[in-house]
């Protein structure tokens, strides 16, 4: 660098001092001053660009983290409001929509889980024990907000308006499935409801959400992206990349971690040593909060305020919702192999998010035992009706296997693959029957 500037410096020495100093040279003196300074101008503040908020100390001390981040809540385990100032006082209509959505999700999970066990669908994942994270967060969002789910956010989509019929069509991969039969069950998506299609690879939605949030910022929209993920996904590299991207671009993205205690069969004690997932937010300069994920009102308050901050201050927010996965990870899992059944039973008995919210509603006079019984009976009938209807609908046409990737004329290799598929189907109808598929 100096060798490049040497001719210019010699020239300056032969010219008048009144000549203006080139911009590149005006930077030299301040940089040299900073590099040689032993004491910053204000006495103790570090001026190195890597951590400009630090201050000097003469005490040799290693940091190991502060005290654990507290967990925000509104309701106690009996559904009573602890501090009246924290009750969002939602309307009866909103409260009942949240609660009925919880009951509907619970009933749908039971029916579809059993359907998979009967071989009627290929795969399923329940949300038992995590219903408050779904409905509390969904109620605090707008339809303009973009949702990236992991695979246990069916309740969020349900609250936004996805119908029982649409859930059934997707799980059966029939001709009415928006994904045209290309996705596994529970991999939902809805353009109309701003819910990005779920993908199986763990953590891919995280950097995608950060990019979408940056796009919202550039467009000047009063909307946020909310990205759901489990604490297991926070061990993926995509998690760190996403938080760093969102933080440095100052994008309105809410990272919502469902810390339910298990990454499939791996308990949290074998996943990390720090203070949960929330403690990582400070490292990326993000506003961070931990919330009782079994408290629907607490989740609502947190997401509502996080959304306000993200838009008003143009910043990402990290939310860690502590909850407990009551069900198996999926129909491919048997959780009794790695946790005692008594542990699960104890959680159901002592802290059910549905029971806690129901007790709150009963205190408000919004819900009764009679209404509970009637609703459960009716919603089960509705789900079974849509379930039976979806089962009779044919599968999507084979044409869809080769569409919607390339726009316009299809490339030669895709055309060859389609021709080969049709040849095999035609020559071996005993192995490749198309009777159950639309033409």
Helix content: 40-55%
Strand tally, please?
A: 9
Which percent band covers the strand fraction? Answer: 5-15%
Cα-to-Cα separation, first versus last residue: 70 Å
Round the mean pLDDT to the nearest integer and report it. 91
How does this model look, in words?
41% of the residues lie in helices and 8% in strands. The chain has 14 helices and nine strands. Helix 4 crosses helix 5 and helix 4 (92-117) crosses helix 13 (369-392). The protein is globular, with a radius of gyration of 28 Å. A seven-stranded parallel sheet has the order 1-8-9-5-4-2-3, sandwiched between helices. A two-stranded antiparallel ribbon has the order 6-7. The chain is of the alpha/beta class and 439 residues long. It has helices at residues 2-13, 23-26, 28-36, 92-117, 131-139, 154-160, 164-172, 205-219, 237-248, 296-312, 341-350, 353-364, 369-392, 412-427; strands at 71-72, 146-148, 195-196, 225-230, 253-259, 262-263, 266-267, 287-292, 317-322. The chain starts with a helix and ends in a 12-residue tail after the last helix. Residues 1-5 and 7-38 have low confidence and may be disordered.
Break the fold down into its secondary structure elements and pairings.
Layout (H helix, E strand, L loop, with lengths): L1 H12 L9 H4 L1 H9 L34 E2 L19 H26 L13 H9 L6 E3 L5 H7 L3 H9 L22 E2 L8 H15 L5 E6 L6 H12 L4 E7 L2 E2 L2 E2 L19 E6 L3 H17 L4 E6 L18 H10 L2 H12 L4 H24 L19 H16 L12
Parallel strand pairs: 1-8, 2-3, 2-4, 4-5, 5-9, 8-9
Antiparallel strand pairs: 6-7
Helix pairs in contact: 4-5, 4-6, 4-12, 4-13, 5-6, 5-10, 7-13, 8-9
């Amino acid at each position: 660098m100096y060798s490049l500037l040497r001719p210019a410096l010699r020239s300056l020495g032969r010219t008048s001092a009144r000549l203006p100093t080139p911009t590149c040279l005006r930077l030299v003196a301040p940089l040299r001053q900073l590099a040689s300074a032993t004491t910053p101008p204000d006495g103790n503040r570090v001026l190195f660009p890597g951590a400009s908020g630090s201050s000097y100390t003469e005490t040799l001390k290693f940091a190991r983290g502060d005290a654990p981040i507290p967990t925000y809540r509104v309701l106690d385990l009996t559904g009573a409001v602890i501090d009246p100032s924290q009750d969002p006082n939602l309307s009866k209509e909103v409260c009942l929509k949240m609660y009925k959505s919880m009951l509907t999700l619970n009933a749908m999970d039971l029916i579809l889980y059993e359907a998979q066990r009967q071989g009627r669908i290929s795969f399923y994942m329940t949300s038992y024990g995590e219903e408050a994270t779904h409905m509390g967060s969904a109620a605090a969002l707008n339809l303009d907000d973009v949702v990236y789910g992991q695979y246990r956010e069916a309740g969020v989509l349900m609250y936004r308006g996805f119908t029982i019929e649409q859930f059934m069509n997707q799980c059966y991969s029939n001709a009415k499935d928006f994904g045209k039969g290309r996705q596994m069950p529970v991999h939902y998506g809805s353009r109309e409801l701003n819910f990005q299609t779920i993908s199986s690879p763990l953590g891919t939605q995280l950097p995608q959400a950060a990019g979408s949030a940056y796009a919202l910022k550039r467009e000047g929209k009063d909307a946020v992206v909310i990205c759901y993920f489990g604490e297991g996904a926070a061990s993926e590299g995509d998690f760190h990349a996403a938080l760093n991207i969102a933080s440095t671009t100052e994008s309105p993205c809410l990272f919502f971690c469902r810390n339910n205690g298990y990454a499939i069969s791996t308990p949290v004690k074998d996943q990390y040593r720090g203070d949960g997932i929330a403690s990582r937010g400070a490292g990326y300069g993000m506003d961070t909060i931990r919330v009782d994920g079994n408290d629907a009102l607490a989740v609502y308050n947190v997401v509502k305020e996080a959304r306000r901050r993200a838009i008003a201050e143009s910043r990402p927010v990290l939310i860690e919702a502590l909850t407990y996965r009551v069900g198996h990870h999926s129909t491919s899992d048997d959780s009794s192999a790695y946790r005692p059944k008594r542990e699960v039973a104890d959680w159901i008995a002592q802290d059910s998010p549905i029971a806690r919210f129901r007790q709150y509603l009963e205190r408000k006079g919004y819900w009764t035992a009679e209404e509970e019984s009637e609703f459960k009976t009716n919603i089960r009938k509705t789900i079974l009706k849509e379930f039976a209807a979806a089962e009779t609908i044919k599968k999507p046409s084979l044409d869809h296997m080769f569409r919607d990737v390339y726009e316009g004329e299809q490339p030669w290799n895709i055309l060859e693959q389609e021709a080969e598929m049709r040849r095999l189907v035609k020559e071996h109808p005993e192995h490749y029957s198309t009777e159950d598929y639309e033409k």
